[in-house]
Amino acid sequence: MNLKTLLGAGCLLLALEAEAAPFPTRDQNPLVAAFGLPLPLPAALAGAGETRIDTVFNWSNTANSQAAGNEAILFDLESREVRIAFERRVSRRMALRLQVPYRRLNAGVLDSFIDGWHDAVALPEGARVFLPRDEFRLTWFRDGRTLVDLREPVSGLGDVSLEAGYQWLDSNAAAISFWVTAEAPTGSRAKLLGNGEWDFGLHLAGRHAFGSRGAVHWQAGATRPGAGGPLASLQKDWAASASGSIEYGVWRGLFLKAQVDAHTAVFESEADLLGSAVILTLGGDYRFASGWLLDIGITEDVEVAASPDVNFCFALRKSF
């Protein structure tokens, strides 16, 4: 075996040792994102004595309007969320995970890009043809009442979450973990940065390897949003969520990935904009020999209008 082959095998081994994970994204619908629906959780907990740090940036754009029954909703905005997660194993089978998000809702700059993309691939523009570019508006009227009316950009700390994970199974071929999640009311309810209540959830996450380069990830669970404030009477008691992804190594540390995320409706509403959502994320990650992992993905709304028109997901991860 020559030196070139040995170096290639070594790079592949280091890349495979970097922690594989699904895209760290979820539905960025501005009326739903504050209600405790989880990002994909690790199937394999952080190693003994290690701290895993994830830095995640989700940047989404949506422009939709709908009148359904006794309500009218208008979304014309971008959301940008930076989220830092810290995970530490605290016993042989238990780990704790802390997530701190910072969110901004504003007019943004992506409207022209999305219009050009829709034209290039012949996708429908929907409400975009009637809305001005790069402006901010978020309103929800129901039964003659104004439930939400934001006309100026807002930003600040979102709802901080604390999660406890139990490692049920962990081997080279498969890993399964059970998670209990709690989201604290640290974000402003008036600014839609949080819902002003504690949210709780139970979730199961798994990973299964196939061959030397491929793996599938899955997650399923339910969230109980805290009921309070002006939207409490419209909230459902539980929201179910699930995700599934597949990844395959194509060249040394480069892996291509596809992921589907879905959840049931959080609110009682006839509007598609607040219904159940299905989103597709395509992209990949690169696993550096130093142990860093870089994720890049782009999300489209499979269930049209229920989630943002587009979301860009970037993440940088490492265990120390």
Question: Overview of this structure, please?
Answer:
This protein is mainly β and 320 residues long. Helix content is 8%, strand content 51%. It is built from 2 helices and 15 strands. A hairpin with a 2-residue loop joins β1 (51-68) and β2. The longest helix has 15 residues, at 3-17.
Given helix and strand content, the structural type is mainly beta
> Cα distance, first to last residue?
33 Å
Q: Work out the strand percent.
A: over 45%
Order of helices and strands: HEEEHEEEEEEEEEEEE
Largest sheet: 12 strands, antiparallel, barrel
- Could you say which overall geometry the principal axes of the C-alpha atoms support? globular
Mean residue pLDDT = 88
Number of helices: 2
| Helical residues, percent | under 10%
Query: How many strands?
Result: 15
Q: What are the low-pLDDT stretches, counting only 5+ consecutive residues below 50?
A: 1-17
Helix-strand blueprint:
Elements (H helix, E strand, L loop, with lengths): L2 H15 L33 E18 L2 E19 L4 E13 L4 H10 L16 E6 L2 E6 L3 E4 L3 E10 L3 E10 L15 E12 L3 E11 L14 E13 L2 E10 L13 E11 L5 E9 L8 E10 L1
Antiparallel strand pairs: 1-2, 1-15, 2-3, 2-4, 3-6, 3-7, 4-5, 7-8, 8-9, 9-10, 10-11, 11-12, 12-13, 13-14, 14-15
